[in-house]
From TrEMBL:
Protein name as catalogued: GFA family protein
Family named by the database record: Belongs to the Gfa family.
Keywords in alphabetical order: Lyase, Metal-binding, Zinc
Span of domain CENP-V/GFA: 7-115
Length: 140
């Protein structure tokens, strides 16, 4: 395993720390209303990874879980930081908010998804592909 493929992540209070082997496979911006609430801003920048590669290195006791419909949104019950999104439809894939990763060397975002739900105050200032909903190409 290459050194840069082992990523570290943590919540604001560091009650929850985790490691991620295998790296982030792709990055997308999500404009959906659920991600907007979960992240407290929009778009939410998500890094995709394999669920099996995520290891919680601290206690799991403070991992809160909320089922938002299509998946389980996990967060720290002490500080409120988002931690990850576990899809129900694609359980082998986990989405991690880029802001909880402690590494700066991450892949560049590739696309915007759910732009039909975009907030009026959010401006897209790049030339990345925009998808109104969830495209086939986002499933990896
Ligand atoms: Zn915390
Ligand atoms: Zn979303």
């Amino acid at each position: 395993m290459k050194n840069q493929d082992l990523l570290q992540g943590s919540c604001l209070c560091r009650s929850i720390c985790f490691s991620l082997s295998g790296g982030i496979t792709s990055v997308r911006y999500c404009h959906c209303s659920h991600c907007r609430k979960f992240a407290g801003t929009s778009p939410a920048a998500w890094g995709m990874a394999e669920t099996a590669n995520l290891t919680i290195t601290t206690s799991k006791n403070q991992v809160g879980k909320f089922n938002s419909g299509r998946g389980i949104r996990c967060f720290c019950t002490n500080c409120g930081s988002p931690l990850w999104f576990a899809s129900i439809e694609y359980p082998q894939i986990i989405a991690i908010p880029l802001g909880v990763l402690d590494n700066d060397q991450l892949p560049a975002p590739e696309q915007h998804i759910w732009t039909q739900s975009k907030a009026s105050w959010c401006c897209i200032n790049d030339k990345l592909p925009q998808h109104p909903t969830y495209p086939e190409s986002a499933q990896e």
